[in-house]
């Protein structure tokens, strides 16, 4: 046993001596995960920062809602002020033109021709027998739920519904028409944005009232024959949307908006 122990000690000494003359082994590289951990930590920090910034931005947008409402009201007031100024300027032009017409025969003749065409063009208010149609959204439930099988689109008045009534009244021989007490012509465009009506640059909420002057029997017959109106009446029966149709003496205001064409083509 003593010999074996001595031999083992001698072998260890020899290995140490040989190792001293051998080149050193290169250091092992750090495993990839040891580098990835800091990168993951940095990415997580950026993610948390972005989430906080986004949440703060959402809060800011919610806080700006009153500002946007005020901005809309300010713009509406500016539009109303501009309309009043335009009306004053038109009156001034009329006065000066009238004064000039008293001394100029051709101008006076042209003004007479223009006045003769004002009623047909819609620039004078009219009163007479006619039909009033009113369209309205379905009433909302107290608990905020929708009727079974219904969507939000089923419960509101759409652009096509208003257009169906307007087209039927024109087809029935309407001599003059107004929507929301605004005179419309055959070239007036009816547009809906959501459940609001856009007409001549103004926005209106339901109920939408359409007034037409003409023979009441012909107007009502045209409404009854209109496929679009029939479809809306089916929705009235099924989803409780609003539809009223009355005959009475009505007044349609004069057309007061611009008559300039924004686009046109010359027929060939």
Q: Brief overview, please?
A:
This protein has seven helices and eight strands. The chain has helices spanning 2-21, 32-63, 65-101, 105-121, 159-171, 216-225, 227-239, and strands at 126-136, 176-179, 182-184, 191-193, 196-199, 202-204, 208-213, 242-252.
Structure in words:
- The protein is an alpha+beta fold and 268 residues long.
- The protein is 53% helix and 17% strand.
- It contains seven helices and eight strands; from the N terminus they run H-H-H-H-E-H-E-E-E-E-E-E-H-H-E.
- It has helices at residues 2-21, 32-63, 65-101, 105-121, 159-171, 216-225, 227-239; strands at residues 126-136, 176-179, 182-184, 191-193, 196-199, 202-204, 208-213, 242-252.
- The strands form two sheets. A five-stranded antiparallel β-sheet has the order 3-2-7-1-8. It has a three-stranded antiparallel β-sheet with strand order 4-5-6, with no helix packed on it.
- A hairpin with a 2-residue loop joins strand 2 and strand 3 (182-184).
Describe this protein with a few key phrases.
single chain; 268 residues; alpha+beta; five-stranded antiparallel β-sheet; 7 helices; 8 strands; 53% helix
Strand order of the largest sheet: 3-2-7-1-8
Number of strands: 8
Gyration radius (Cα, Å) is: 40 Å
Taking pLDDT < 50 over at least 5 consecutive residues as the criterion, the unreliable ranges are 57-61
The percentage of residues in β strands lies in: 15-25%
Structural shape: extended
Number of helices: 7
Q: Specify the helix fraction band.
A: 40-55%
Overall mean pLDDT: 77
Would you list the SSEs in sequence order as H and E? HHHHEHEEEEEEHHE
Output the structural class.
alpha+beta
Q: Major β-sheet, in short?
A: 5 strands, antiparallel
Alpha carbon gap, first and last residue: 124 Å
